[in-house]
Amino acid sequence: MQNPLPKELLSLAGEYAVASALCRRGVYAQLTLGNRKRTDILVDTDDNMMRIEVKAAQNNEWPAIRGLHRIKDALVLVDFTGKTLDDTPDFYILNLNDWKQLVAEEEERYPNITVDGENQIKYPDGWKGLNLKPARVATFKDKWEKIVGLSNG
């Protein structure tokens, strides 16, 4: 991106980018409104509904990601780092099992962390959430089938 965006605009840019990418794949995606939510986009079909949480970054890291705790949820990380206005951001799509895998890896690295019933990490110093860099989630890049597959039944 040319200039860093304020956090609110960065979040909106990420949400709209994900909704657009899903609609282009034939999936109905509706943005939700409000600033106290863990659901940014609802995907609705005749027989299924899922919630998508979107996190956007422009500096090569997503800080304090709270994660997933419902089976039909997805987390989409949007990376605008180094992108111009004409570039498409990078997308990393995680489902609940992917998130649990990241949490388990973090528990191995830091045995003193706690994980609550919603799969949220808390460190002994009080920090909550997982900081993620693209290299750590590289295997999830462009895995749209995790959403498109669920939304199609």
Summarize the structure in words:
This protein has 153 residues and is α+β, with helices and mostly antiparallel strands. It has one domain: Trna Endonuclease, Chain: A, domain 1, CATH 3.40.1350.10. Helices cover 25% and strands 26% of the residues. The strands form 3 sheets. The protein has a 5-stranded mixed β-sheet with strand order 1-2-3-5-6. The protein has a two-stranded antiparallel ribbon with strand order 4-9. The protein has a two-stranded antiparallel ribbon with strand order 7-8. The model has no long low-confidence stretch (mean pLDDT 91).
Please describe the structure with a list of short key phrases separated by commas or semicolons.
alpha+beta; 153 residues; globular
Give the arrangement of secondary structure elements.
Elements: H1 7-24, E1 29-31, E2 41-44, E3 49-57, E4 62-65, E5 73-79, E6 90-95, H2 96-109, E7 114-115, E8 121-122, E9 130-132, H3 145-151
Parallel strand pairs: 3-5
Antiparallel strand pairs: 1-2, 2-3, 4-9, 5-6, 7-8
